[in-house]
Write a structure and sequence with these properties.
Blueprint: H1 3-7, H2 12-33, H3 43-53, H4 56-82, H5 92-112, H6 121-124, H7 128-135, H8 142-159, H9 164-178, H10 191-194, H11 197-217, H12 222-238, H13 247-266, H14 275-285
Length: 286
């Protein structure tokens, strides 16, 4: 078997190592929360374990990139974060605004449907939003701790052999399942109380498709993946649909509709903009 053939294999090693690192670090908290053991840890210690465990995907991604490509591969991955020019001007619009627009519409539809209107502290104090956004791109934030693995390694590897849509679904599925221990972890975020595990996994699959679409159209920019992950988290805090009766379902339906349109227009194989493909799809729709 030559090097290229080995390089095309499904990245089981990435998923096994990622889950092993994260779940092993989270295990003490899960055992305590389920009354299996009593470690008498403080909340701050659980917070540290939660934080460190979240680095599993990125640690694995960088490690496997180094094993495959050496220092040059790691430098290339880091450069992908720094080169904002990979994101063409037009792609900043869906990157920053699309998910918040969907969540906003779902929030309004919940109100129209007679659902509960939860408190919205970020809308009451909008100056917090840019501060949180900047913070969500720092090394300790979820996007940094995860995206160098999910998109920086796993997605690229799977797309070598599979189409973009299928690759997105596979990465999104593992991305969702990876969160399972956090449903049994002390000091977990409130979202794990209000969002069922099955729904979180479906959301992860749909959002993975959005990330792939923008990632592929911005030359595989890790900056795109980091920003969109941060926007997804921030949008969920600005418009807390998970605290409403109908908002979560509306948001899911809207995201499915939008990503279906994206796949129809851009194609499922690469999900990349092509003038000829766009014209063909337009003729079909007309």
């Amino acid at each position: 078997m030559n090097e290229n053939q080995r390089d095309d294999r499904f990245p089981w090693n990435f998923f096994v190592i990622t889950f092993g690192i994260s779940w092993l670090i989270w295990l003490p908290g899960v055992l305590v929360a389920t009354n299996v053991i009593d470690l008498q840890f403080s909340d701050s210690m659980y917070g540290i374990l939660n934080l460190i465990g979240g680095f599993g995907p990125t640690i694995t991604g960088f490690s496997l990139v180094y094993l495959r490509k050496g220092k040059d591969g790691v430098k290339e991955l880091i450069r992908s974060v720094l080169n904002y020019k990979d994101i063409g001007k037009i792609w900043w619009i869906p990157l920053i605004l699309l998910i918040p627009a969907i969540d906003f519409c779902a929030f309004i539809l919940n109100i129209i449907s007679g659902g509960t209107v939860p408190e919205t502290p970020y809308l009451m104090q909008p100056w917090i939003i840019p501060i949180y956004f900047i913070g969500s791109l720092l090394p300790f934030a979820n996007s940094f701790r995860e995206e160098f693995g999910w998109r920086g390694y796993a997605l690229d590897k799977i797309q070598m052999k599979q189409n973009a849509l299928f690759s997105s679904i596979i990465v999104g599925f593992f991305w969702g399942i990876w969160h399972l221990p956090l449903y049994f972890f002390p000091t977990s975020q409130i979202i794990y109380v209000y969002v069922p595990f099955w729904l979180l996994t479906i959301q992860a699959i749909i959002l993975s498709c959005f990330i792939t679409w923008l990632y592929n159209n911005t030359n595989g920019s890790m900056l795109t993946a980091l920003i969109l992950h941060a926007v997804i988290n921030l949008s969920g805090m600005i418009f807390p649909n998970y605290l409403t009766e109908f908002g979560q379902i509306y948001a899911l339906i809207l995201k499915i509709i939008i990503i279906t349109c994206v796949v129809i227009i851009f194609g499922y194989k690469q999900m990349v903009f092509s003038t000829s493909r766009f014209n063909e799809r337009l003729k079909e729709l007309c």
